[in-house]
Amino acid sequence: MSTTLLEEVPPPRLDPVEGVKEGLQRRWARPGGRAYAVLRWTGATIFTVIVVGLVVSLVASASQAFGHSGLSFLWSGTYNASKDIYPTGIFIVGTLITTAVAIVLAVPIGVATAAFLSELAPKWLAGPLSVLIDLIAAVPSIVVGLWGLLVLTPVFAHHVEPFMKKVPLLEWFFHGPAYGPSMLLAGTVLAVMILPIVVALSRTALTSVATEDREAARALGATRWQVVRTVVVPGARTGIEAAVMLALGRALGETFAVAMVIGNNYALPHSLLAPGATLGSAIINNFGEANPGLDRSSIIGLVVVLLAITVLVNVGGQLLLRRRLRAAGAAS
Amino acid sequence: MSLTVLPAGSDDFTDAIGTRRELVRESARRSLVRRRITGRIAIGLSVGAVAISLAPLVALVAYTTSRGIRALSWDFFTHIPTPAGIPGGGISSAIVGSVIIVGLAAAMAVPVGTMCALFLVERRGRLAGALRFGADVLTGVPSIALGIFAYAVLVGPGSPIGHFSGLAGSFALAVLMLPIVIRASEASMRAVPRDLWEAGLALGVRRSRVVRSVVLRGALPGLVTGNLLAVARAVGETAPLFVTVLGASLLVTNPLQPMGALSLTIYSDGTQAYPAAQQTAWGTAFVLLALVLVLSVVARLVSARLTRQARR
Prior knowledge:
Number of domains of chain B: 2
CATH superfamily of the largest domain in chain B: MetI-like
Number of helices of chain A: 13
Number of domains of chain A: 2
Strand content of chain B: under 5%
Number of strands of chain A: 0
Order of helices and strands of chain A: HHHHHHHHHHHHH
Low-confidence stretches of chain A: 1-7
Distance between the termini of chain A: 67 Å
Oligomer: heterodimer
Mean pLDDT of chain B: 88
Radius of gyration of chain A: 28 Å
Structural class of chain B: mainly alpha
CATH topology of the largest domain in chain A: MetI-like fold
CATH superfamily of the largest domain in chain A: MetI-like
């Protein structure tokens, strides 16, 4: 019975490819396809609105302070209820110094640790240690700050800072009374905070260097260390630089971990042992007490300065990385 | 020195190759001792670096754990804080606040982030490049700036809420999570083989259906891991909450009111001189640490497990 039906009405013979294409087009035109496109565009639109809104609202909130003092905001500005005037420059200097200390401490040690874990350590040791460091990278900065405040501060006041003062040739960096809370301590706390990030990300970069490259170098007679120095680290350079950029951004923008250990002294630091302040620590220390109006607006001005610094560093770093990648792509 | 060209295959040629090989071998042997010593020293230094980097990290976690565990008790989880100087009390308001704030943040960031990731996966060209660049830059924006942004649009005078609230904190954390969710989701969606997309489309299945049952499913381990890591990052943040949520010692479940949060308790109690308050700060730090570590471990396990299932 069904056979007769088939014979009477032969199926339309479509070129299979055409059929698929037509089917796709038909489905695409259905509301389901449109809803999907709307969904994607909604996501992208919300994201764009947030990014634009972030910049616009911050600049608008700070406009009162910028309008009040213009470019001189960078060396003068009113921040608290008592109308004391602190130059923004102090906080910028403090931010740069603490970040520099953190980078100097964390990057060489972090990259060396990553190189050991990725290339030199036996597998039974490298595996668990890598997982451990990846997990520690998730420790919130406030916990690092608490540890710095209650554990490291006395250690620095009684042991580390007096010791640093005695180190020959470094008097210019380390002089003055040893209080405990200082630029050095803040930089150290930041270093502890960014170290696992540097290790975890550079380790990923190092392990993703092609095994063939390592084998080629070994076949040429290079020792294991020579392989690391001449093949693996140069091969992972872009990834390591990206890791350092991320760590740098975290250190520049940290607030509470720094505010708890830096001493919050609003003066130009004369030594790494002197207490100071960073943009981040000044923002949170003064935001609560700031009166609405010029006070609050100038604090938000500090946020805009901090945002500008971090975005400049980030965009600069990313453009650099992209250009390097493109150059590498053209060379090969 | 005169240059003679030896015909390939001749005995002279073979001899010359042999001499050259000997020379190379000889020089390699001579430098081998030096290179080995350099290698040993370098490896020794890198072992030292590992020790230096592990010491503070392990000390930090171990100290927080040992001090924090002493603060824990049933009351610590179920009671609200007592006024300063009065012993007892707990951090239930902070735990409830953190859970609600981060939960709402995830409810905002995950759908929007996934939609953005789909946009990036489906579209090439300048617009997608700009969005990706924006996400990368947003990753590097300090969290305090995101907090002040939320303050300006939700808390400050003239804004829809107009006072400190949990919801404003959720918004700040959602913006913080967004770029993490976007990049992690995009990466895991891109890892789904192109063939599977095409196979689905060639069957004449609607594109949204292909995305739902092939792409999102295939990318599920990566999506779950990325989102959990974003939550882990958000739950530990302090600065954005400080300027939006304010903190509260009473148990607040209405996200339109100021709320407590774990990180805020660590700061407010840790900076007090009373040993009892510091004890509470260590206990809270331990709870937060445990929460973040559990989230990270679960993220890894989920990823490993789902990957294994997908392979099967």
